[in-house]
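Today's session is about reading a structure prediction critically. Students often jump straight to the picture, but the first step is always the sequence itself: look for stretches that repeat, for charged clusters, for runs of hydrophobic residues. Only then move on to the predicted structure, which in these notes is written as discrete structure tokens rather than atom positions. Here is the chain we will use throughout the hour.
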Amino acid sequence: MFVLAALSYLITVVAVGLFIVRLRQLIALYKKQQPDPTRSGNRAARTKNMLKEVLGHTKMLNFTGTGIAHWFVMVGFGALFGTLITAYGQVIQPDFALPIIGHFVGYELFAEVIAALTGIGIVTLIGIRQATRFWHKGRTSRFAGSNQGRAYYVEATILAVVFCVIALRGLEGALAQEESWNWHYAISWPAVAFFSSWSTASIENAIVIVATLKILVSMLWFIVIASNLTMGVAWHRFLAFFNIYFKRNIDQPSLGALPEMLSHGKPVNFEDPADDDVFGLGTRGDISWKGLLDMTSCTECGRCQSQCPAWHTDKPLSPKLLIMAMRDHAMAKVVDTENLVGEKAPISQDVLWSCTSCGACVNECPVDIEHVDHIVNMRRFQVLVESEFPAELGGTFRNLEKAGNPWGANKQDREGWIAECDFPVRVVSGELPEEVEYLFWVGCAGAYEERAKKTTKAVAELLHMAGVNFAVLGKRETCTGDPARRAGNEFLYQILSAENIETFKETFGDRPKGKKKVVVTCPHCFTTIGRDYAQSGYELEMLHHTQLLNTLVKEGKLKTSPHKADQKITFHDPCYLGRHNQIYAPPRELLEASGCDVEEMPRNKERSFCCGGGGGRMWMEETLGSRINLNRVDEAIDTGAPEVAVACPFCRIMVGDGMTARQSDVEVLDVAQVLLRSVKQQ
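Below is the predicted structure for this chain, in token form.
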């Protein structure tokens, strides 16, 4: 038995030593990467959020059965540490127990229950994974492209540890000559009964063997993961806590505003850039320490992939595979100047430009990986440094620069919709008069695109009917810069945002923030003005039109028809209104107030399927795979509803075009149009 004890302690020294060495190497890699000071501060809030997400498994429970099973496995990983310490004593002295608590019924019962639930949990996870692989094959499986062998090894390790814990508890009870069931051996009693017929010497030998096996299995696990820094399915047990703690947005998924473009830890000064400034993410050396932490925390679970509209429509982008490719490249023995994107690089141009920035991947990730941030940062490098981007975007950028809108429409036509209204619309040329409560930001689509103009006029009419004092900027409006920023042209975005901020300053004067109220119909404008502009130090009180209209209905300033509509309607959640800003209730409440029977699509709210128009994709041809908007309209058509309500001009265009392509007579309306119809019927 001396040999087994010596082997146990020797492999422990090797495993712990190797793990510490590799952990230090990993930390050194993080320190070597680009700094990101935005992750510091708000320690109390960060800690609270981390504990909530980890202990509450808030992300994992989106996949309920998997989440519950994983919670017990996670708890077992730490809670069973005491049984490992006990094993080191048992290889020398079979009847060894931890001091003080070793024979305490509470501890022993806890260890047994946790071990049993961990075993049940891991068997459940194995079953779910195998069932998923059976029912969902190829691209339909969220595990497509994952390193399955690594997952099998981790699962086998956990099962082996659970077996050893229960077996040791049974042997301990037999050695103590327990004659009847008691709470000390509540779970392991069948094992106690089985081993009770053995001789004392045999039981003691078995304890040493099983304890040695437990140590060997546990230490071999440390050796394996120390030998492979890309084994996220194992490393996330240590790194996930930190990745969640350092997430960009503490109070929500890292969506909404895009991160500032940092160089050496400071925002790039586009008016006077330094010679060594880093523009986006182009090489391994450009990856920030948080970016590398993201990559090494990836469990390859595929939850991001399962929700990605690009992957679901046979495009080459999978957010999981993208993070894995970036991780493998970052951890490989390559020079820091090797490109991340390109023909022979780990990320292809087709992968990079397939993203709609819908945020479904970020929303689902259980360890808060910021996929969209990495994609946009790589786009920034491609646009600003390499000048490599889809040809269609060249025209969009020129239109934004010269005409102030992505369509290239005449600036003089921004007020054209006003002439089509049979009620007055106030246009302000200087500072907003004191009596005007809301500035109505019309947006490029709302001013120029015929379908979006109907929404603009409906909102304006409803505000007029409610007695709301509002005004518009007319020709003083220009694009917020959203298409440029999401497509990687940060320089152009900075120009457009600076122009708009100066316009806002002139318009609102010295009003406090609570009286700088802006209502918009476009969630993209809502996000860019409300969140991105705050990075430049200018904040406004932003309202989406569904929020304001819902308030007016609740206050009785807009009275809807008391008659229930005789037909169903379905609602498409815009990504930039829902996932990016967590606004789900107001549009639905408005539809219900309008007498509509809302028939939800299977994928709704936080799991709504993108229309395909975000992330600059509105201005690019969709030549790979099938069309995203067709996938979505098929789902809407299947509800049987004769109307689809939207709350975004981009969604209106994409869903409307999809209905036309499908030769469907399902009508696409903005929520404001549905409300106006009901108010006029009152």
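Discussion point for the tutorial: DSSP finds 27 helices and ten strands in the chain.
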